[in-house]
Request: fold
Amino acid sequence: MTTLTVAGALNELNASRFVVAGALAPALHSIRASRLVARPGLVEVHADPVRFRAVADPRGRSLHLGCGAALCNLRLSAAQVGYEPVVRLLPDRGHPTLLAQVRLVGPHRSRPSERLLYAASLRPLPARQPYGDQRPPAPVLQELAEAARLAGATLHCLPRSGGPQTAVITTPGDGPAAWLRAGQALQSLLLHGAVRAVSVSFLHEVSGVPGALDALAPGDTPQIVLQLARTGL
Reply:
């Protein structure tokens, strides 16, 4: 049965619930900072106030990164049901805990690459993984850079002298929308890494990483530092 057939067999609310269930994969622990609500034809992403710790995260940055990761999973889950996800960030100024809406339009026939990434999202991906000592091949790094771009971010690879490749996810500007985009980019890179035998270790804080700020364009804000290494041939 194709995804288009599945989509035609579901009403709007059931499709939304199916997408939510598929997005609750255990890929990144901080996804649990979000609360997903199914509506007819759309899914809402809310910040979970119970998970918000004002002392440790006064601006809610980590919270938004985790909710951005959930958005990435939502988009993949929607594709499996046969719907094209249309994402709107921060849709209602009067409801600051409503971080995004994902409207399900279509039909959409899932591509093999989407199915591979969705399968990877069903497997736990530790927040920090052990990594090897070889830089990923240039074509794989280009694929990761494209994945970050599609999420609204940029992946900068820093100069290296050996060992894993250090990279930085940046966004144009800073603030809640930028954090959501960075979270989507991070989750996408974790899943692409799982598919391409690349380990991804990351830090939310960029300060203190040599060279992290040197190659940035004016207006770029560094969000996440990554260590990328090939784990298989």
Notes: The chain has six helices and eight strands. Strands lie at 34-39, 42-47, 84-89, 98-105, 154-157, 165-172, 198-203, 220-230. Residues 1-9 have pLDDT under 50 and may be disordered. Residues 164 and 229 are 5 Å apart (CA to CA).
